[in-house]
Structures are given as C-alpha cells and as structure tokens.
Design a protein that fits this description.
631 residues, Rossmann fold, 3 domains, nine-stranded mixed β-sheet, six-stranded mixed β-sheet, 22 helices
C-alpha cells in the first residue's frame, strides 16, 4: 500500500472515530442541559437505552449526506446545508425508532430538540473552526503579512478577492480597507475589512493607512468610471493593479486571488461580452476544420479555441511561414492528442486551394486570411483585390465543390460605406460569399461576421502606441476626434464561433453589439497614464492627419441595412439587400481581369462599380463623381 493511500485511510478512520465519540457526548450534553447539569437517576437509563440507536442512525445519516467526505478546511454553505439535513433527518428517525420500540413513554422529549441543536453546534462549529484556523481568520487582517492594500469596489469581485486572500497563506496583499461610492456601505465590513469611504478619498486613505497597493475590483465599471479611478490611483502615487475577469479565470489565464496590471482593454468602456462555447463545441467536435490566415492575430486565436473543442483534424493555413511554424508548435504542445496540419499556401492560388481541399476535405472553413492595413492597401490595390476578393472566391468555391458543411467569412466594419480599397474589397468579399450564384446553389452554409477594430491584434493602434512609448517617441494620432468601435480578441473569436453555430445566421452577416465608439485620443492618453506618465507633459501626442482611405468615424451598417436579435444575447444579424447577380458576375470578371494584368485604374473602377455606396476619396481615385463624404 502506498504512503498517500495509507494516510488517506488513516484520515478517514480518524474522522469516523471522532464522530463516534462526539455523537454520544453531544447526546449526553442534551440530557444535561435538560436537567440543568444534574441528570436524575431515573432518567439516565433513557440515555443508555437510546444512545446506541442515535449513534447508528446519525452515522448512517452523515454517511448518506456525504459528511465524512467533506474537506473541513474548505467547508462552505453547501456543507452546512447538508449537515442540517443530516441532523434533522437523524433526529426525526430517532423519534420514529423510540416510538416503535416503546422507549418514548416517559422519555424527556425536549432532549430531541436540544440534541438537534447541540449536534449542529458541535459538528458545524467544529468544521468552521478548522477552516477558520487554516485560513488564520482568528488572526486580525492587519497583523498578517503582505502588502498593505486598499480595495476599490465593494461588490462580488472584491468579496471573491478577500475570500481567496484569507484562504491563501501566500497571498501578496493585506487589505486594510475598502472604498465604495455606495454611501449605504460606509462603515460595513466585508470579510472583516471595513468600508472606509468613497473613491474620492483614495488619496487621503492611502496616506492615512500606509497603503502600498491599490486593487481595482470593479469589473462592471464604465470607461468614464475607470478613467476617474485611474486618475485617483495615479494621484495617490502608489502601485495599482486589477482583479482578473471571470473569462480570464475560466480560460486559465489567471487564478483566483491573482492580480495583474491594468491593461488598455480594461478601459474599453463596457463589460467584455461573454458568449460561451457550448454551441460551437457541439458543432466542431470530431470534425475536420480549416482556418485560413491561421498565423494571424484572429486566425491563431481561432485555432487555439477550436483546438480545445477536440476536432478530428485542424488545418492551419497561412502564407507566412515563420508565424505558422510557431502557431503549429504551440498547438501541438497544448493539444498533443490533436492532429494539427500546418499548410503554407496562398488563398488566391485556385490550384493550390483545390489540392488542399481535395486532400483534407474540411467540413468547417473559417476564412480569416486577408490584407487588412488600410493605408498599405491604398498603394497596393491589385494585391488587395487578388487576396481579399479573388482569394475569398477561390476558398469559397473549393468549400462548395468539396462539400464543406459551413464557411464563415471574417469581414470588417470598414466594409460599410467604404472609403478605402481594403474596405471595398471586404464588402465585395461579403457579396461573393452571400450572393455568388454557384455558391448559393451549393449545399454549403455560407455566412459572414463583421468586426470592429480588435484591441491588441497585429498592426492595430495599441501595439503601435506601445512601441512608440518604449522608444521614447511621441504617440501619433491621426485626428483628435477620430473614433473606432473596439472589441477584444476573445470577443472577436467568440463572435466567429457563435456565428458559425447560430441557425439564424445562415446566409447572413453577424455582428457584435459593441457599445459606443471610442476616441483614439482617449486610448492614447489612457495608455500613457497606465505607464505612470502624464499626456502632453511627459509624453507628447502628435496629430498626423487622416491617412489615405481612412474615415473619421466607422459605421456598423449602411442606411439600407437593419439588424435583428438572435438567440445569443449581444449578437445580431444584419438584414441586407442581396447583390444583383448580373452586376456581381460582370464586375468580378472585370476585377479579375484588371488584377491579372495589374491595371490599377481599371481595378479601382471595377471596385466602385461593385460597391456603389463607396465614398470619396475612393470614388475620386476611380475618376468618378465624388459622392457626399460621410463622417
């Protein structure tokens, strides 16, 4: 027998022996209480004649309700409920046994009630005493080791943090107080920690109590609230951190009680949307899945999430050899039982795509491959057309020809009233997926999703700002009023996976409710503050002017589109006009011909013909009459 097994059995025997000793002792105490400590001789035989019944009944009840298996150091409310049930059931059964054995005549019946109360006190109190000792709850917070901390927020997140900090002897914090703007909480205590005042007193309380760490525990704070809290933390002049979100805990990116630095997406201005994965899991488990653009920010995160759903095979396709190598290495290490196939290929090469589909026969296709940098595509029009339009058509046609069950295109809000080549090509990609005749006649379910800007993705504004900060350079913002809709990478991936699973999203465009657009200037200023610096004082912000193809404000849908809710909260589907088949066919033929010979001007004219809602300066570049500019 192994040592751990022997220790486990000895522990079980000790717990059982403890119960065997305490049950009669508690029963005797109930008799003593009934007779004020002096049990008359004529009543002692009731104790000795019935204690055996109680012992057998209560041990059986405790075993039935699993009380011998509880972990006393982590006893909680569910254990207390089980204890009440077990003690109540055993007391009731004792009365039945006494009645059936004629022992009830002359029996002091109040003893049953007293025994019930004493048993709850002894067994419940004992269990919670063990937990209190293990968690050092008998020791005042301020005598514990750890950094003296002030908790900002007195809600559920703060409660979880304090509970975990009390359990964990290695906790890095010693909370001395809580600040909360709810005046009704002032003076109250949460796990023994007092609420000292509102957030307007953070600086004063930090100095008074010698606080060295501020912990933000308000996951539902709005952008304005977070900005105010951040300003107060910076003014206090001490380190500040934030509690992880529920999604970070579930994903394993953080553990309960662990703190992290405040990040820019904490200032998104809305709660992160949690869409869940049960629908996608049922869809993808045991299937062959292809992710194009699988080495990019979104594609690689898609591959990571899909890998966790146990598909039969996961094909990760990308042109970029080195990033693909590292994504494949990561997936193979994280999911050793999964067949991960890296494919280096160009989606705009129809022959190569046909060979990939013929060999692997993917059942689900997530098409994330695209050129997405707006200014770069303004000077590389033909490549944008070749990759974003013709590449999408190539992959979609292969999906239909080889019987893929579903095809999901990842699009962008820049496809709405596009002012850029990139936006126009993505709008045409939407039209192709949802309106190309050969695809519409196939059995493949084609659908699309529309993103806002993705925080932290490759080439997005946040990594650029961070590089500029690290190099000691000014932060560059195109315009003081420029705004964008933002979503996090986890939100983007959840949107794609849920859109793939929703029945009502078939042949439609799905999008996430992203709240209000965010000013890029605000992001720049907040990032500077998160670095412990002051905007314009320590780090200048330089306005460079809108770049070619950029708009001041993005839109999520056109004037002729509307959205309807779906079964998943926060996801809506866009009702849009189907493209004219003849116009689409003719326009794509012209676009493909222009791309084949590298005719820049003809490609621009064909783009505008296929996307009549495009706005200046794209129309001006195509030599067409400028339409009224949209913000």
């Amino acid at each position: 027998m192994s040592v751990p097994s022997l220790v486990f059995k000895l522990r079980r025997l000790f717990v059982l022996a403890l119960h065997v000793a305490v049950i009669p002792a508690g029963y005797y105490l109930a008799f003593a209480l009934r007779f004020d400590g002096a049990i008359p001789a004529e009543y002692r035989h009731y104790f000795w004649g019935t204690v055996g019944y109680l012992l057998a009944i209560r041990l059986g009840a405790f075993g039935t309700f699993g009380l011998f298996h509880g972990w006393w150091r982590h006893v909680g409310m569910s254990d207390l409920v089980s204890l009440v049930k077990a003690v109540t059931a055993s007391s009731a059964l004792l009365v039945v046994v006494l009645y059936m054995t004629s022992e009830l005549a002359g029996y002091p019946r109040s003893v049953v009630v007293l025994d019930w109360a004493v048993a709850l006190l002894l067994f419940g109190g004992g269990r919670f005493a063990v937990r209190a000792f293990r968690e050092e709850r008998l020791v005042p917070w301020r005598s514990r080791r750890g950094t003296r901390a002030l908790i900002i927020g007195g809600g559920a997140a703060a409660e979880r943090l304090l509970r975990e900090a009390q359990r964990d002897r290695e906790s890095e914090i010693c909370p001395v107080g809580i600040v909360d703007d709810d005046a009704t909480k002032l003076g109250m205590r949460l796990h023994g920690v007092p609420v000292l005042g509102g957030s307007d007193r953070i600086g004063e309380l930090t100095a008074r109590f010698g606080v060295k760490l501020l912990v933000i525990a308000i996951p539902s704070a709005t952008r304005e609230q977070m900005r105010e809290i951040l300003a107060a933390c910076l003014s206090a002049g001490v380190e500040f951190k934030i509690v992880p979100s529920i999604r970070e805990l579930l994903d394993g990116r953080a553990r309960m009680g662990q703190l992290r630095s405040v990040q820019i997406d904490d200032l998104l201005g809305r709660e992160a949307v949690e869409l869940g994965f049960e629908g996608p899991r049922a869809d993808l488990e045991g299937r062959t899945v292809l992710v194009t653009g699988g080495a990019g920010s979104i594609g690689s995160e898609l591959a990571r999430q899909i890998a966790g759903f146990k598909p039969a095979r996961l094909i990760v396709l990308d042109q970029a050899e080195s990033p693909l190598y590292f994504v494949h290495l990561e997936l193979a290490q994280a999911q050793p039982g999964l067949t991960v196939i890296p494919v280096v290929a160009d989606v705009a090469d129809p022959g190569r795509m046909e060979r990939v589909f013929a060999r692997y026969r993917p059942e689900f296709v997530f098409h994330a491959a695209a050129y997405k940098h707006v200014p770069l595509m303004e000077s590389n029009v033909v490549e944008a057309v070749r990759n974003n339009v013709l590449g999408t058509l190539s992959v979609a046609e292969c999906a239909a020809r080889f019987g893929a069950e579903k095809f999901v295109l990842i699009s962008t809000d820049k496809a709405v009233h596009p002012s850029s080549v990139m936006g126009a090509t993505k709008r045409i990609a939407e039209q192709v997926v949802l309106g190309w005749p050969a695809l519409a006649r196939s059995r493949t379910d084609f659908r699309a999703v529309r993103f806002g800007n993705v925080l932290g993705s490759d080439g997005s504004v946040i990594p650029l700002f961070k590089r500029q900060l690290a190099a000691g350079l000014p932060l560059t913002v195109t315009h003081p009023e420029v705004t964008r809709y933002f979503m996090t990478i986890p939100e983007a991936v959840q949107l794609v996976l849920q859109a793939a699973a929703l029945p009502e999203a078939a042949s439609r465009i799905s999008m996430l409710e992203m709240g209000e657009p965010v000013r890029i200037l605000d992001l720049a200023e907040n990032l500077i503050r998160l670095s412990g610096l002051e905007p314009d004082k320590d780090v200048p912000i330089v306005f460079t002017g809108l770049r070619p193809g950029e708009k001041l404000h993005e839109e999520l849908m056109t004037d002729r589109e509307a959205t309807v809710p779906t079964a998943v909260p926060k996801i809506r589907v866009v009702q849009t006009d189907a493209p004219d088949v003849q116009t689409l066919t003719t326009g794509l033929d012209r676009l493909a011909a222009a791309a084949a010979v590298g005719d820049l001007q003809d490609a621009l004219v064909a783009l505008c013909a296929l996307v009549p809602e495009c706005v200046a300066p794209l129309r001006e570049r195509a030599g067409q009459q400028p339409a009224p500019e949209r913000a």
